[in-house]
């Protein structure tokens, strides 16, 4: 190795070590998360240098292929490049850096299949699943099919010759628009993404806030527009999670705010070095360009010819141009450290995209004190906030911490607070990871009150991660232990919201179609409603409100009366006693677990009066089904989180 080889920072060394530890004990595909500007290329180079077998490093653009290749050459080592855009197609050396499209078009050059490690840079761009690949979110079905096909074909070819191929992804934003996290388990001891995620484990992550605090990245200084801005709040995203160009143009085209916005950018950037402006559409970008100093500005779009694009980017990097306007083409694979102003004139559909945009200005450069982030689009994202798997349910929701009542793990879900009290959350299942022994112990009779979870023993051997609950590993010094024990961890089986199997009583995800315990088909809510509507002695109430009242029954005994109202004034009631410990236990099991807006909390009212006073902590079902019993209606099924074909009440309470 060259005496002038790059020196890794501590977090880069830790990332490399964690990857090696993980792959020594597992063949599961893994992910390393490093913020933009943190030196992913150097981590890739060090891994390639230390690898014993052959290494293929894939990227989606030739700029990244060049960057990664250059970092490896800095070690004084040689490597091949396989990229039509770089006019090189070499694949003989131990390490090959390639563009994915060139590699998939030249798979015959990789027919030997003797690669032991495949590295995918910017792996958030492609949605991979166990047994195949799905596409990145793009604008056309054809583009999605190509992305899916490319990575899937390369992986399939390499795995044909070596089934235990190690696959590593690197990204600054480990989530995809509308899908959540791209990996299943995090080495700090939590489940983050779907169980069928292709990447099984995140083995190292360096938070952006830590990078800024330690001086490895420039500090982002965000300023929201006070006078001139665009209002994108009424736009509705398409099925792919992105906004339609016609809708964006409807806001920005000919907008009187544009000249004011551009003038504000110019004024605030007067003493700055490099300004990147992210426009909403091509037409919008062209209008913005026309308002900037012509001799100091340029525009790059997806339609800009390759040579022209290279010339403009080179001029910008050489500081011959001060302003570079673009439309969704310079969010990744672009490195211009002198950039110290980011102007956002478009809505960003996800925190990941927002972080990618702002990340263009966070690299260090001589004389650079910070990066000014000017947002003229009212984007709601916190640069440092974590992504949450589900979509934000409404504008008032925020990330809240919810402790699992079984394993103690501190989950993060969308929810709402009343002061420090979490009064609502939208979590379904605990994200904590347990050792397989703990999981099996919890599945034994008596290990849980009123719950049986054969799912715990059935899932043993599936997972990886770290420790459970409050004992999770934290800090780089514990990361190796977490990575090495990954294959011995399984997800906690506690469900905050659930669907009960009528055959075995097992609890399942609210969207499940078959029971994960006994395998029986779960009855569809629409079937339940349809069957009940056919019965003479059954009543279906479309719930528009729920009322709790502390009262007495016909014998004068204190009771809690719960009344469900429909839109036409019809009602159904159920009654509970809360005077004894046994009654409160029944109330918690039969009522609270389903009705709590923040399920899993330890709130259990000691009296009917307390329950009625705290009714805001409870949610109403969408439907209740009752059957005639003598002169009375007896409540049976309650349907929550309904998403079927029947209409729900227009003004449901809770």
TrEMBL record:
Stretches for region Disordered: 437-482
MF annotations from Gene Ontology: helicase activity
Pfam families, per database record: Helicase_C (PF00271), ResIII (PF04851)
Species this protein is from: Salinicola endophyticus
Compositional bias ranges of the Low complexity kind: 469-482
Helicase ATP-binding domain sequence ranges: 21-192
Protein name as catalogued: DEAD/DEAH box helicase
Domain of life: Bacteria
All residue ranges annotated as the Helicase C-terminal domain in the record: 261-406
Keywords assigned by UniProt, alphabetized: ATP-binding, Helicase, Hydrolase, Nucleotide-binding
Entries under InterPro entries matching the protein: Helicase/UvrB_N, Helicase_ATP-bd, Helicase_C-like, Helicase_Restrict-Modif_Enz, P-loop_NTPase, Ribosomal_zn-bd
């Amino acid at each position: 190795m060259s005496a002038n080889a790059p020196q890794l920072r501590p977090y880069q060394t830790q990332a490399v070590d964690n990857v090696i530890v993980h792959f020594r004990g597992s063949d599961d595909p893994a992910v390393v998360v490093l913020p933009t500007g943190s030196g992913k290329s150097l981590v890739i180079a060090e891994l390639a240098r230390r690898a014993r077998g052959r290494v293929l490093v894939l990227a989606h653009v030739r700029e990244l292929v060049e960057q990664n290749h250059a970092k490896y050459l800095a070690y004084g080592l040689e490597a091949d490049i396989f990229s039509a855009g770089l006019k090189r197609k070499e694949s003989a050396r131990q390490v090959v850096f390639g563009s994915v499209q060139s590699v998939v078009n030249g798979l015959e050059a990789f027919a030997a299949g003797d690669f032991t490690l495949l590295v995918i840079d910017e792996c958030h761009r492609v949605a991979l699943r166990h047994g195949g690949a799905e596409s990145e979110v793009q604008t056309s079905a054809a583009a999605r099919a190509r992305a899916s096909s490319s990575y899937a074909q390369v992986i399939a070819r390499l795995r044909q010759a070596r089934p235990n191929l190690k696959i590593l992804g690197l990204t600054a934003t480990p989530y995809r628009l509308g899908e959540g996290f791209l990996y299943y388990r995090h080495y700090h001891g939590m489940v983050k993404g779907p169980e069928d995620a292709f990447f099984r484990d995140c083995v190292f992550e360096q938070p952006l806030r830590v990078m800024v605090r330690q001086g490895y990245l420039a500090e982002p200084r965000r300023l929201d527009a006070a006078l001139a801005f665009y209002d994108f709040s009424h736009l509705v995203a398409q099925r792919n999670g992105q906004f339609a160009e016609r809708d964006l143009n409807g806001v920005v085209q000919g907008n009187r705010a544009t000249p004011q916005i551009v003038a504000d950018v110019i004024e605030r950037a007067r003493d700055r070095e490099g300004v990147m402006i992210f426009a909403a559409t091509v037409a919008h970008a062209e209008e913005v360009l026309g308002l900037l100093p012509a001799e100091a500005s340029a525009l790059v779009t997806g339609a800009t010819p390759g040579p022209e694009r290279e010339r403009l980017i080179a001029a910008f990097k050489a500081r011959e141009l001060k302003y570079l306007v673009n439309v969704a083409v310079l969010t990744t694979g672009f490195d211009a450290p002198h950039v110290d102003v980011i102007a956002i004139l478009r809505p960003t559909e996800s925190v990941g995209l927002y972080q990618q945009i702002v990340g263009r200005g966070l690299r260090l450069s001589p004389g650079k004190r910070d990066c000014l982030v000017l947002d003229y689009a009212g984007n709601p994202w916190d640069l440092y906030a974590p992504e949450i798997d589900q979509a934000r349910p409404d504008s008032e929701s925020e990330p809240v911490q919810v402790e699992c009542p079984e394993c103690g793990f501190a989950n993060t879900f969308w929810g709402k607070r009343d002061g420090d009290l979490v009064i609502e959350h939208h979590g379904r299942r605990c994200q904590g990871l347990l050792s397989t022994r703990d999981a099996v112990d919890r599945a034994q009779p008596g290990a849980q009150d009123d719950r049986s979870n054969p799912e715990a023993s059935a899932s043993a051997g599936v997972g990886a991660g770290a420790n459970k609950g409050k004992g999770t590993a934290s800090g780089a010094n514990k990361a190796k232990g977490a990575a090495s024990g990954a294959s011995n961890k399984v997800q906690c089986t506690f469900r905050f919201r659930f669907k009960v199997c009528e055959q075995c009583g097992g609890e399942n995800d609210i969207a499940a179609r078959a029971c994960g315990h006994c395998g029986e088909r779960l009855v569809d809510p629409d079937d339940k409603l349809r069957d009940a509507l056919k019965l003479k002695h059954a009543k279906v109430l479309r719930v528009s409100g729920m009322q709790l009242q502390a009262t007495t029954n016909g014998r004068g005994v204190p009771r809690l009366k719960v009344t469900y109202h429909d839109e036409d004034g019809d009602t159904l009631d159920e009654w509970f006693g809360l005077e004894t410990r046994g009654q409160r236990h029944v109330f918690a099991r039969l009522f609270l677990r389903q009705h709590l807006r923040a399920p899993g909390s330890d709130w259990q009212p000691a009296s009917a009066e307390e329950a009625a006073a705290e009714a805001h902590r409870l949610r109403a079902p969408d439907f209740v089904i009752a059957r005639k019993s003598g002169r009375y209606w007896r409540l049976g099924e309650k349907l929550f989180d309904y998403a079927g074909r029947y209409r729900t009440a227009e003004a449901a309470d809770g």
